[in-house]
């Protein structure tokens, strides 16, 4: 499976913060926003990742992440000249993904919860068509809303319904088989001229090949695209990290745990950030991993 991380757009909901800076590099407590969705793809075991950004921001992301080699990744870049819908990312990334399955994650989404790695591994292993991830929300009228049966098979899918059939919002993480690029290319643009991701998901729904996994109680899903939600995300990360002594979306730790890098490389990455709590944590992760008894 290959990954696409969509970090385009102009971040209008976050102005004036984003007047001269991509929202995806804004700090969410102790790390850039882009770390959070990137860690999701890495947790799913994905090493080949295409980062899609607008032309003005490509160099910024390259300066932060490079080609991904230091984390055991193969990171490529593509540009989205203007935002024309989430599904356009699948068209832009078609040559990159080729005949592989693909996971698409939005650059302003944070996911955190128990057994998340296993959930992702299971979703990749069992993928047959389209795998979506749902989260129960107070006001589903603001989201794409899915209705599922007991097995998680998607029954209905509505975009911002006036009278929602459920309170299960579709999050910004999507997994597809190799048919998805062809489906996206054949979409009819919306009245706004955009390729809608809900239309892609409805195509799989019509084929009976759409599944939605609920992210249950104890799980956190945050869209960090507004001032309020950005603040909430930072507070959430701060609280969890301070109380539990772990770091959410620490790319170096994820890379080590997934076997993308070894302990020596993890330690070197920590040592490259001397005098910082983050760098110290990365070094401690490497030391703990080295000291842990073999399974």
UniProtKB/TrEMBL annotation:
It is an enzyme of class 2 (transferase). CDD domains: G1P_TT_short. It catalyses: dTTP + alpha-D-glucose 1-phosphate + H(+) = dTDP-alpha-D-glucose + diphosphate. It comes from the Bacteria. GO terms for biological process: hexose metabolic process; polysaccharide biosynthetic process. Gene3D superfamilies: Spore Coat Polysaccharide Biosynthesis Protein SpsA, Chain A (3.90.550.10). Its EC number is 2.7.7.24. The keyword Signal does not apply. Belongs to the glucose-1-phosphate thymidylyltransferase family. PANTHER family: GLUCOSE-1-PHOSPHATE THYMIDYLYLTRANSFERASE (PTHR43532), GLUCOSE-1-PHOSPHATE THYMIDYLYLTRANSFERASE 1 (PTHR43532:SF1). This is Glucose-1-phosphate thymidylyltransferase. It comes from Phytoactinopolyspora mesophila. The gene is rfbA.
């Amino acid at each position: 499976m290959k990954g696409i991380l969509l970090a385009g757009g102009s971040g209008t909901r976050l102005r004036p913060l984003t007047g001269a800076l991509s929202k995806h590099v804004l700090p969410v407590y102790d790390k850039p926003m882009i770390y959070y969705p990137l860690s999701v793809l890495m947790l799913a075991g994905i090493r080949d990742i295409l980062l899609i950004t607008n032309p003005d921001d490509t160099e910024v992301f390259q300066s932060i992440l490079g080609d991904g080699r230091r984390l055991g990744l193969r990171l490529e870049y593509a540009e989205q000249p203007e935002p024309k819908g989430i599904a356009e990312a699948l068209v832009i990334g078609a040559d990159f993904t080729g005949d592989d399955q693909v996971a698409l994650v939005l650059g302003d989404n944070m996911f955190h919860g128990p057994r998340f790695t296993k959930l992702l591994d299971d979703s990749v292993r069992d993928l047959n068509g389209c795998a979506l991830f749902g989260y129960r929300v107070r006001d589903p009228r603001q989201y794409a809303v899915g209705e599922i049966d007991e097995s998680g098979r998607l029954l209905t899918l509505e975009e911002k319904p006036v009278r929602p059939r459920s309170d299960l919002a579709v999050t910004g993480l999507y997994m597809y088989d190799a048919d998805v690029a062809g489906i996206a290319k054949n979409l009819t643009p919306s009245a706004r001229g955009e390729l809608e991701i809900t239309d892609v998901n409805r195509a799989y729904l019509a084929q009976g090949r759409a599944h939605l996994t609920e992210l249950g109680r104890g799980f956190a899903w945050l869209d960090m695209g507004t001032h309020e939600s950005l603040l909430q995300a930072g507070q959430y990360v701060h609280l969890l990290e301070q109380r539990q002594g772990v770091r959410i979306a620490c790319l170096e730790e994820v890379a080590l745990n997934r076997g993308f890098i070894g302990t020596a490389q993890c330690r070197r990455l920590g040592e490259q950030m001397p005098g910082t709590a983050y760098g110290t944590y990365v070094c401690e992760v490497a030391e703990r991993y080295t000291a842990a008894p073999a399974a």
